[in-house]
Amino acid sequence: MTKDKGQITIILGLGNPLMGDDGLGIVAVERLAEMDLPDGVAVMDGGTGGLTLLHLMEGARRVIFVDAVEMGRAPGHIACFDLGRAEVAEQAALSLHHSGLPQILALARELGPLPKVILCGVQPAGVAPGMGLSPPVAAALPELLELIRRCI
Amino acid sequence: MNIEIKHLARMEGHANLVVDAANGELKECRLEIVESPRFFEVMLKGRHYSDVAPIAARICGVCSVSHTLASLAATENALGVRVSEQTLGLRRLLSYGENLQSHLLHLYFMAVPDYLGVPSILPLAKTRRELVARALRLKKLGNDLVQVIGGRPVHPVTPRVGGFSVLPAAAALKELRRHLVTALGDLEETVALFASFRVPELERDTEYLCLAADAGYPSVGERIISSDGVNAPVHDFAQVVREYFQPHSTAKFARASRDTLMVGPLARYRNAAAQLSPMARKVAAALSLDPSTRNPYQGNLARLTEVVHFFEEAIHLIDSLLLKGLRPESIWVPPGGGAGAGAVEAPRGTLFHAYAYDEQGRITSANCIIPTAQNLGNIEADLRALVPGLLHLPQPEITARLEMLIRAYDPCISCSTHLVKVEYL
Description:
The structure holds two protein chains of two kinds. Chain A is an alpha/beta fold. Helix content of chain A is 35%, strand content 23%. Chain A has helices at 24-33, 52-56, 86-95, 101-111, 135-151, and strands at residues 8-14, 41-47, 60-68, 78-82, 116-122. In chain A, strands 2-1-3-5-4 form a five-stranded mixed beta sheet, sandwiched between helices. Chain B is of the alpha+beta class. Chain B has one domain (14-418): Cytochrome-c3 Hydrogenase, chain B (Orthogonal Bundle). In chain B, helix 4 (85-116) runs antiparallel to helix 12. The longest helix of chain B is centred in the first third of the chain and has 32 residues, at 85-116.
């Protein structure tokens, strides 16, 4: 987790693995951490850390959030958003049902230049107490990981 | 008045208040603002003891250290595992880190906007940039503490049953200490800021409960005390803190010796002010805080006093750990099962976990009582006591006072109480 200031891409998994598909971001960064990634790429488990994410993003030139995102699509649907664009961030505020991410990004934007922020998300089938991903979300995982690797 | 909260930090809930202004009473008060992790028991059943704390750490992103520490203590007490002074010291340090993270977040991001009359911290990032920068500098030190001891800033990975899987490097502790010392200026400014705020008045007697100050100000511990004379081992917590349901709410409430119970910074301060660090005692005096206080709004002042205490104590604790030198320890977990409870002073108050294990070290039952559940009845009683004295005020002011009262407890969802809709009868 060494950070080379301004030279780095941080992949931040978000979510709660005790809430079914909400654990997607955590499972994704666990898998990514086992893979060969280029230099200058750090993988972190942000969990449900809320405002601590602001500090985790520090020094990054680019941040890729991985999370379950409510998009009104079929479970397992994958999409990436550029959250640097304000109108997309607003849209994301509606769909990121509980991460506090929009507020964190708004504050980060006030405080200084925002790194490039990308959100890679999967439509969850269910976010309810329980461990493990639903079959459609688990099935989407390899494609999601490939997409993130191509983003880097 | 109707308070509705849509989305909470990874938790759903809402609070409904109906104020009957004509008769000067709170007609309805439903604080369904927190869900005790009832799913926890089901999720843990059959799990091996080594898997339990990492699952507990996920219950909450703000209190992941506290859930980890209470969980480990419960497992260790159940299985008869002894931990060393070194482990207890590192766990205290870890707990200070989380308390700093959480307290500073609350003070600057929830309380300061209330007192400065702005809806959130966001406008302050424009108008009071130095204040926001200071808040983030201070909070980062809490993160650093948790990172160095726990292996990462949230959901720690190094604590394990019996001790730590990885010990912090001496160099990292020294660097941490150097950073903690530089915070003193920021702390002074924070104290000056809060000393300038006018804290609303409310006097109501209740029972104040926390872990005993056996080894300094309450943190990790094995005994529960209260202002009503409770003095019991943590093992017996379920007989002391009894949970119950209210017909009007789906949330679990808790009481001890009387109808209402308070846990958290103000309870700890009331019960253990004499154990605070020298600097924290001076800060309490500068904030006009007194151990006989019965004003729940002063929770924020107790929180700030604790911040100063945790900084000062963390520096001393690091010195003492470095002086003795950290040594890898062999950890022995006796075979067989058992039942036990563990507790820790989490940012919002005393957190209990209790487990039973079978002969293979697999969980057969689990229980967890969170601080906010213990405070719920007290918040309701405070709100009822508060309303009659507020009726001369304009309605927006009444709403603000009620919200500030709820927030003074820093309930898990305090960040969301800004999203409030109001209706009066």
